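Recap from last week: sequence in, structure out.
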Amino acid sequence: MYYSLVTGVMSGALIFIQEDLGISDLQIQLLVGMAHLCGLPGSLIAGRIADHIGRRYTIIVACIAFLLGSILMGYGQPYAILMIGNCIVGVGVSFAMVVAPLYGAEISPPSSRGFFTSLPTLAVNTGFLLGYLSNYFFQKLSLRLGWRMMVAVPAAPSLCLILLMLKLVESPRWLVMQGRVGEARKVLLLVSNAKEEAEQRLREIKNVVGIDGNCTLDIVEVPKKTSSGKGALKELFFKAPPVVRRILVAAVGLHLFLRLGGSAVILLYGPRVFERTGITDKSTLMLANVGIGVSKVVFSLISIFLSDKFGRKILLLMSAVGLSVTMLGLGVCLTIVEHSKEKLLWAQYLTIVLVYIFVASMSIGIAPVTWVYSSEIFPLRFRAQGLSVCVIVNRIFTVVVVTSFISIYKAITMGGIFFVFSGINIAALLFYTTLPETKGRSLEDMETVFERNSK
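Predicted structure tokens:
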């Protein structure tokens, strides 16, 4: 939620930051990309840290970074301080993006894992809505104070989450990796539908870790390599069996298309897109952005009930079709606007509607399913650090897209860049057809699922 709240407020705050600080479009692009760029080293070590200190404490570390970064951004003068605060936020975001879906997947029962692993996405989208709403209300304050209030607001939920995580349980799978089988059993009894299910899940986890499934000891000796995650990344790339390589390609491909498909552009530069159609009133721009947040929340709420019912794959395919069509529509609409000498009122309304449909298509499928799918398919030994690799790819291509968007659309027109995004989403649709369905399968059974799919 914190990441989305920051992104949501930055989407509107950028207009006011640029006006107040008198900075260029290039500096705005650098500011937007800084959080993602600084998140790269964080993504690289987040999985290893999650293996070393646990999923729960890694989330707390992320929240501390959120808190410090927000305070610095709220100070926001000079531009360099704003950049440093945004950089610290980026490190926290990278940690959270690895460990939040990982934690959700590892504590959820197979029958409802899609639901529980999608809940962070609902929180993310709620964060976007709250960010857009805060922009709408804070823009009524003075220029100097308004945007500072916008970027400082996310400090509050980060503090609340620190306190909440101190009360929550640790991942049972991480506990077994540490040899703390007794503690894992207690957690599984809390998060399973029945005692028999908890015991079955515990046996499967112990077998994967290399512990005799019938062992009744509460504390078991496990190899240092298993408990610390040491060497997992190297093994993943150079020594993993073919089925694990296929899993890696599937997970990385999902994150690649999520970021290249244009979602970050809509979420961060929505007001600028609306401006191109002739909407210049800042209050109207902020209100239009609120609609993006509402669309995200409504359709992500619908998605959490569909993932376990219809499956991951069907949601991905439906979503990709929606993204391809709406991006094509935006390309046509904005091209007409750019070649017209008059203000086209119909184009303003159509652009807003298409953006809302794009956000709805993204929120019901690709956005939540990418995280659900990539957090559940890796074998336990590679899960945390495999997800780190996904987040690194996610961050790299987010940086590429958000830091180049303004320059590219000025070179090939706003309509032209949306035609490109439409083509990318069509390629994503073809990629999703190759993925196996994972709903209802245990995390320990994913290698079998991919082996069968490759035959």
